User: What shape does this take?
Amino acid sequence: MRGAVRLVLVAGVAAALAGCSIPSWMPLIGKAKGPPPGAPPPSEVRAPLLSRPALPPDAEAVMDRVICVVNSDAVTLYELDEAEAYYLYENKLPRPSEGEERAKLRERILASIIEKRLQIQQAEREKLTVEDAEMSERMGEIQKRLGATTSAEFEEMIKAQGLVIEAVKKRIREQLLVERMIRRKVSLRVSVTEEEIDRYLIANREKLETGLAFEARHILFVPGAGSGEDGWTAARRRADEIYSRVLAGEDFGDLAREYSEDAGTAKNGGRLGVLKRGELAPDIETAVLRLSPGEHSPPFRSQVGYHLFELDSKETLAGEQLAQARNQIRDILYKQKYETRLQEWLTEIRGKAIIEMRL
Assistant: This one.
Protein backbone atom coordinates (compact mmCIF):
# COMPACT_ATOMS: atom_id res chain seq x y z
CA MET A 1 0.00 0.00 0.00
CA ARG A 2 1.10 3.51 -0.70
CA GLY A 3 0.84 4.49 2.99
CA ALA A 4 3.15 1.68 4.10
CA VAL A 5 5.77 2.57 1.46
CA ARG A 6 5.53 6.18 2.46
CA LEU A 7 6.15 5.33 6.12
CA VAL A 8 9.41 3.64 5.15
CA LEU A 9 10.80 6.91 3.90
CA VAL A 10 9.21 8.85 6.75
CA ALA A 11 10.84 6.57 9.28
CA GLY A 12 14.20 7.11 7.60
CA VAL A 13 13.82 10.87 7.77
CA ALA A 14 12.63 10.81 11.35
CA ALA A 15 15.42 8.48 12.44
CA ALA A 16 17.94 10.70 10.72
CA LEU A 17 16.62 13.72 12.56
CA ALA A 18 16.59 11.94 15.88
CA GLY A 19 20.15 10.74 15.35
CA CYS A 20 21.35 14.30 15.07
CA SER A 21 20.41 15.34 18.56
CA ILE A 22 19.60 12.51 20.97
CA PRO A 23 22.47 11.73 23.36
CA SER A 24 23.52 8.21 24.37
CA TRP A 25 22.88 7.89 28.09
CA MET A 26 25.52 5.59 29.57
CA PRO A 27 24.83 2.54 31.78
CA LEU A 28 26.18 2.40 35.31
CA ILE A 29 29.38 0.66 34.21
CA GLY A 30 30.85 1.33 30.79
CA LYS A 31 32.63 3.96 28.77
CA ALA A 32 32.03 7.35 30.28
CA LYS A 33 30.65 10.00 28.06
CA GLY A 34 28.71 13.05 29.20
CA PRO A 35 25.57 14.23 27.44
CA PRO A 36 26.02 17.11 24.99
CA PRO A 37 25.04 20.39 26.69
CA GLY A 38 21.41 21.14 26.05
CA ALA A 39 20.61 17.81 24.42
CA PRO A 40 17.27 16.23 25.33
CA PRO A 41 17.16 12.69 26.74
CA PRO A 42 15.89 9.83 24.59
CA SER A 43 12.63 9.70 26.55
CA GLU A 44 11.47 12.89 24.83
CA VAL A 45 8.76 12.16 22.26
CA ARG A 46 9.65 13.68 18.91
CA ALA A 47 6.99 14.60 16.37
CA PRO A 48 7.50 12.53 13.20
CA LEU A 49 8.56 14.32 10.05
CA LEU A 50 5.40 13.76 8.11
CA SER A 51 3.55 15.89 5.63
CA ARG A 52 0.09 15.36 4.30
CA PRO A 53 -0.33 13.28 1.14
CA ALA A 54 -3.11 13.75 -1.35
CA LEU A 55 -6.44 12.39 -0.10
CA PRO A 56 -9.62 11.39 -1.92
CA PRO A 57 -12.08 14.30 -2.02
CA ASP A 58 -14.61 12.50 0.17
CA ALA A 59 -11.99 11.97 2.91
CA GLU A 60 -11.07 15.65 3.33
CA ALA A 61 -13.87 16.53 5.76
CA VAL A 62 -13.17 13.59 8.05
CA MET A 63 -9.39 13.99 8.03
CA ASP A 64 -9.61 17.73 8.68
CA ARG A 65 -11.87 17.30 11.69
CA VAL A 66 -10.46 19.22 14.65
CA ILE A 67 -10.09 16.93 17.66
CA CYS A 68 -8.26 19.28 19.99
CA VAL A 69 -7.47 22.98 20.30
CA VAL A 70 -4.28 23.92 22.12
CA ASN A 71 -4.70 27.58 22.99
CA SER A 72 -5.62 28.79 19.49
CA ASP A 73 -3.83 26.00 17.62
CA ALA A 74 -5.93 23.17 16.15
CA VAL A 75 -4.95 19.49 16.09
CA THR A 76 -6.74 17.45 13.42
CA LEU A 77 -7.82 13.84 13.24
CA TYR A 78 -5.37 13.40 10.37
CA GLU A 79 -2.44 14.41 12.56
CA LEU A 80 -3.44 11.85 15.19
CA ASP A 81 -3.92 9.07 12.64
CA GLU A 82 -0.60 9.88 11.02
CA ALA A 83 1.27 9.96 14.34
CA GLU A 84 -0.30 6.65 15.37
CA ALA A 85 0.70 5.00 12.10
CA TYR A 86 4.27 6.21 12.44
CA TYR A 87 4.46 5.11 16.11
CA LEU A 88 3.34 1.59 15.21
CA TYR A 89 5.74 1.41 12.26
CA GLU A 90 8.72 2.70 14.24
CA ASN A 91 8.12 0.25 17.10
CA LYS A 92 7.23 -2.65 14.77
CA LEU A 93 3.88 -3.12 16.48
CA PRO A 94 0.62 -4.39 14.99
CA ARG A 95 -2.30 -2.02 15.05
CA PRO A 96 -4.27 -2.76 18.25
CA SER A 97 -7.85 -3.88 17.89
CA GLU A 98 -10.57 -1.32 18.32
CA GLY A 99 -11.52 -0.82 21.93
CA GLU A 100 -9.88 0.19 25.19
CA GLU A 101 -6.34 -0.80 24.15
CA ARG A 102 -6.32 1.38 21.03
CA ALA A 103 -8.10 4.22 22.82
CA LYS A 104 -5.34 4.32 25.45
CA LEU A 105 -2.65 4.29 22.77
CA ARG A 106 -4.27 7.19 20.91
CA GLU A 107 -4.63 9.11 24.17
CA ARG A 108 -0.88 8.80 24.79
CA ILE A 109 -0.04 9.83 21.24
CA LEU A 110 -2.38 12.81 21.38
CA ALA A 111 -0.80 13.86 24.68
CA SER A 112 2.62 13.87 22.99
CA ILE A 113 1.25 15.98 20.11
CA ILE A 114 -0.18 18.47 22.59
CA GLU A 115 3.09 18.55 24.53
CA LYS A 116 5.07 19.29 21.38
CA ARG A 117 2.61 21.98 20.31
CA LEU A 118 2.89 23.73 23.69
CA GLN A 119 6.67 23.81 23.42
CA ILE A 120 6.55 25.32 19.94
CA GLN A 121 4.05 27.96 21.09
CA GLN A 122 6.29 28.85 24.03
CA ALA A 123 9.28 29.20 21.70
CA GLU A 124 7.27 31.51 19.45
CA ARG A 125 6.16 33.63 22.41
CA GLU A 126 9.77 34.07 23.43
CA LYS A 127 10.63 35.00 19.85
CA LEU A 128 13.14 32.22 19.37
CA THR A 129 14.27 31.75 15.79
CA VAL A 130 16.18 29.21 13.74
CA GLU A 131 18.97 30.45 11.51
CA ASP A 132 19.13 29.37 7.89
CA ALA A 133 22.58 27.93 8.55
CA GLU A 134 21.15 25.63 11.22
CA MET A 135 18.44 24.48 8.85
CA SER A 136 20.95 23.79 6.10
CA GLU A 137 23.18 21.82 8.45
CA ARG A 138 20.32 19.67 9.75
CA MET A 139 18.89 19.09 6.28
CA GLY A 140 22.37 18.08 5.09
CA GLU A 141 22.69 15.55 7.90
CA ILE A 142 19.33 14.01 7.06
CA GLN A 143 20.15 13.94 3.35
CA LYS A 144 23.41 12.13 4.09
CA ARG A 145 21.74 9.59 6.36
CA LEU A 146 19.15 8.82 3.70
CA GLY A 147 21.88 8.22 1.14
CA ALA A 148 21.01 11.11 -1.19
CA THR A 149 24.12 12.56 -2.85
CA THR A 150 22.56 15.87 -3.95
CA SER A 151 19.78 18.18 -2.77
CA ALA A 152 17.87 17.47 -5.96
CA GLU A 153 18.04 13.73 -5.36
CA PHE A 154 16.92 14.25 -1.76
CA GLU A 155 13.90 16.28 -2.87
CA GLU A 156 12.99 13.66 -5.46
CA MET A 157 13.08 10.98 -2.75
CA ILE A 158 10.66 13.07 -0.72
CA LYS A 159 8.33 13.89 -3.61
CA ALA A 160 8.29 10.32 -4.91
CA GLN A 161 6.44 9.24 -1.78
CA GLY A 162 3.90 12.06 -1.80
CA LEU A 163 5.76 14.17 0.74
CA VAL A 164 6.21 17.91 0.43
CA ILE A 165 9.73 19.18 1.04
CA GLU A 166 8.46 22.41 2.58
CA ALA A 167 6.44 20.45 5.12
CA VAL A 168 9.52 18.44 6.03
CA LYS A 169 11.48 21.66 6.48
CA LYS A 170 8.71 22.97 8.71
CA ARG A 171 8.96 19.93 10.93
CA ILE A 172 12.72 20.30 11.19
CA ARG A 173 12.45 24.00 12.00
CA GLU A 174 9.93 23.22 14.73
CA GLN A 175 12.22 20.55 16.15
CA LEU A 176 15.12 22.97 16.29
CA LEU A 177 12.88 25.51 18.03
CA VAL A 178 11.89 22.92 20.64
CA GLU A 179 15.52 21.95 21.23
CA ARG A 180 16.44 25.60 21.75
CA MET A 181 13.48 26.12 24.07
CA ILE A 182 14.35 23.09 26.18
CA ARG A 183 17.96 24.20 26.34
CA ARG A 184 16.85 27.56 27.76
CA LYS A 185 14.22 26.27 30.19
CA VAL A 186 15.74 22.96 31.23
CA SER A 187 19.34 22.18 30.28
CA LEU A 188 20.86 25.46 31.43
CA ARG A 189 19.10 25.13 34.78
CA VAL A 190 20.48 21.68 35.60
CA SER A 191 23.88 21.06 37.18
CA VAL A 192 25.57 18.31 39.19
CA THR A 193 27.98 19.12 42.02
CA GLU A 194 31.04 17.13 43.12
CA GLU A 195 29.41 16.67 46.53
CA GLU A 196 26.40 15.00 44.90
CA ILE A 197 28.72 12.67 43.00
CA ASP A 198 30.55 11.80 46.25
CA ARG A 199 27.29 10.90 47.99
CA TYR A 200 26.15 8.70 45.10
CA LEU A 201 29.56 7.00 45.00
CA ILE A 202 29.43 6.14 48.70
CA ALA A 203 25.84 4.85 48.53
CA ASN A 204 26.42 2.75 45.38
CA ARG A 205 30.05 1.74 45.60
CA GLU A 206 29.35 -2.00 45.67
CA LYS A 207 27.22 -1.75 42.53
CA LEU A 208 29.82 0.39 40.78
CA GLU A 209 32.53 -2.13 41.56
CA THR A 210 30.61 -4.99 39.91
CA GLY A 211 32.79 -6.49 37.21
CA LEU A 212 36.12 -5.39 38.67
CA ALA A 213 38.68 -8.21 38.75
CA PHE A 214 40.52 -9.87 41.61
CA GLU A 215 42.87 -12.85 42.04
CA ALA A 216 42.88 -15.17 45.02
CA ARG A 217 43.95 -18.61 46.26
CA HIS A 218 42.30 -20.99 48.70
CA ILE A 219 42.95 -24.15 50.65
CA LEU A 220 39.84 -26.29 51.15
CA PHE A 221 39.14 -28.82 53.91
CA VAL A 222 36.07 -30.97 53.25
CA PRO A 223 34.19 -32.91 55.94
CA GLY A 224 33.87 -36.62 55.19
CA ALA A 225 30.98 -37.73 52.98
CA GLY A 226 27.81 -38.14 55.05
CA SER A 227 29.66 -36.97 58.16
CA GLY A 228 27.87 -35.15 60.92
CA GLU A 229 29.18 -32.37 63.13
CA ASP A 230 32.22 -34.49 64.04
CA GLY A 231 33.26 -34.39 60.38
CA TRP A 232 32.97 -30.60 60.32
CA THR A 233 34.90 -30.39 63.58
CA ALA A 234 37.70 -32.46 62.08
CA ALA A 235 37.75 -30.25 58.97
CA ARG A 236 37.95 -27.15 61.16
CA ARG A 237 40.81 -28.63 63.17
CA ARG A 238 42.80 -29.31 59.99
CA ALA A 239 42.09 -25.76 58.80
CA ASP A 240 43.28 -24.30 62.10
CA GLU A 241 46.51 -26.29 61.93
CA ILE A 242 47.37 -25.10 58.42
CA TYR A 243 46.32 -21.54 59.21
CA SER A 244 48.87 -21.45 62.06
CA ARG A 245 51.56 -22.51 59.58
CA VAL A 246 50.45 -19.74 57.17
CA LEU A 247 50.78 -17.22 60.01
CA ALA A 248 54.22 -18.63 60.76
CA GLY A 249 55.30 -17.62 57.28
CA GLU A 250 55.06 -20.84 55.25
CA ASP A 251 54.24 -20.38 51.59
CA PHE A 252 50.48 -20.46 50.99
CA GLY A 253 50.86 -21.99 47.52
CA ASP A 254 53.05 -24.83 48.79
CA LEU A 255 50.58 -25.59 51.59
CA ALA A 256 47.68 -25.58 49.11
CA ARG A 257 49.45 -28.06 46.84
CA GLU A 258 50.06 -30.41 49.77
CA TYR A 259 46.90 -30.10 51.87
CA SER A 260 44.01 -28.62 49.86
CA GLU A 261 41.18 -31.04 49.17
CA ASP A 262 40.05 -29.08 46.09
CA ALA A 263 41.66 -31.22 43.38
CA GLY A 264 40.91 -28.61 40.71
CA THR A 265 43.05 -25.89 42.28
CA ALA A 266 45.50 -27.68 44.61
CA LYS A 267 48.01 -28.48 41.86
CA ASN A 268 48.15 -24.75 40.99
CA GLY A 269 48.88 -23.70 44.53
CA GLY A 270 45.20 -23.05 45.29
CA ARG A 271 44.98 -20.39 42.61
CA LEU A 272 41.35 -19.53 41.71
CA GLY A 273 42.40 -17.50 38.69
CA VAL A 274 41.22 -14.07 37.61
CA LEU A 275 37.68 -13.54 38.87
CA LYS A 276 35.13 -10.81 38.30
CA ARG A 277 33.17 -9.49 41.21
CA GLY A 278 29.86 -11.28 41.27
CA GLU A 279 31.21 -14.64 40.04
CA LEU A 280 31.68 -16.32 43.45
CA ALA A 281 29.04 -17.12 46.02
CA PRO A 282 28.29 -13.86 47.87
CA ASP A 283 29.46 -15.09 51.30
CA ILE A 284 32.76 -16.41 49.91
CA GLU A 285 33.37 -13.30 47.80
CA THR A 286 32.73 -11.08 50.82
CA ALA A 287 35.27 -13.05 52.87
CA VAL A 288 37.88 -12.75 50.11
CA LEU A 289 37.37 -9.09 49.24
CA ARG A 290 37.55 -7.87 52.82
CA LEU A 291 41.25 -8.86 52.68
CA SER A 292 44.05 -6.62 51.48
CA PRO A 293 46.44 -7.98 48.82
CA GLY A 294 48.83 -10.46 50.46
CA GLU A 295 46.57 -10.92 53.48
CA HIS A 296 45.15 -14.30 54.61
CA SER A 297 41.75 -15.13 56.07
CA PRO A 298 41.18 -17.31 59.15
CA PRO A 299 39.21 -20.51 58.50
CA PHE A 300 35.92 -19.69 56.77
CA ARG A 301 33.02 -22.15 56.68
CA SER A 302 31.00 -22.43 53.46
CA GLN A 303 28.51 -25.05 52.28
CA VAL A 304 31.32 -27.29 51.05
CA GLY A 305 33.82 -27.06 53.87
CA TYR A 306 36.38 -24.80 55.54
CA HIS A 307 38.53 -22.46 53.45
CA LEU A 308 41.67 -20.49 53.97
CA PHE A 309 41.93 -17.57 51.52
CA GLU A 310 44.84 -15.50 50.30
CA LEU A 311 44.10 -12.39 48.22
CA ASP A 312 46.72 -11.81 45.56
CA SER A 313 45.31 -8.63 43.99
CA LYS A 314 42.08 -6.73 43.38
CA GLU A 315 41.00 -3.83 41.23
CA THR A 316 39.49 -0.87 43.02
CA LEU A 317 37.81 2.34 42.00
CA ALA A 318 40.94 4.41 41.77
CA GLY A 319 42.79 6.39 39.17
CA GLU A 320 41.30 6.11 35.69
CA GLN A 321 38.55 3.74 36.82
CA LEU A 322 37.44 6.15 39.53
CA ALA A 323 37.44 9.05 37.09
CA GLN A 324 35.37 6.98 34.67
CA ALA A 325 32.91 6.02 37.41
CA ARG A 326 32.53 9.67 38.46
CA ASN A 327 31.79 10.69 34.88
CA GLN A 328 29.14 7.99 34.65
CA ILE A 329 27.63 9.11 37.95
CA ARG A 330 27.55 12.67 36.63
CA ASP A 331 25.61 11.41 33.59
CA ILE A 332 23.16 9.48 35.76
CA LEU A 333 22.49 12.40 38.10
CA TYR A 334 22.25 14.85 35.19
CA LYS A 335 19.66 12.68 33.48
CA GLN A 336 17.62 12.35 36.68
CA LYS A 337 17.66 16.09 37.28
CA TYR A 338 17.04 16.85 33.62
CA GLU A 339 13.94 14.67 33.45
CA THR A 340 12.60 16.10 36.71
CA ARG A 341 13.10 19.68 35.51
CA LEU A 342 11.64 18.87 32.08
CA GLN A 343 8.47 17.45 33.61
CA GLU A 344 8.17 20.45 35.95
CA TRP A 345 8.43 22.83 33.01
CA LEU A 346 5.95 20.87 30.88
CA THR A 347 3.52 20.78 33.80
CA GLU A 348 3.95 24.54 34.20
CA ILE A 349 3.21 25.44 30.56
CA ARG A 350 0.37 22.93 30.36
CA GLY A 351 -1.19 24.43 33.48
CA LYS A 352 -1.27 27.85 31.82
CA ALA A 353 -2.68 26.55 28.54
CA ILE A 354 -6.30 26.34 27.39
CA ILE A 355 -6.76 22.88 25.94
CA GLU A 356 -10.13 21.97 24.48
CA MET A 357 -10.69 18.32 23.66
CA ARG A 358 -13.20 17.57 20.88
CA LEU A 359 -12.84 13.81 20.50
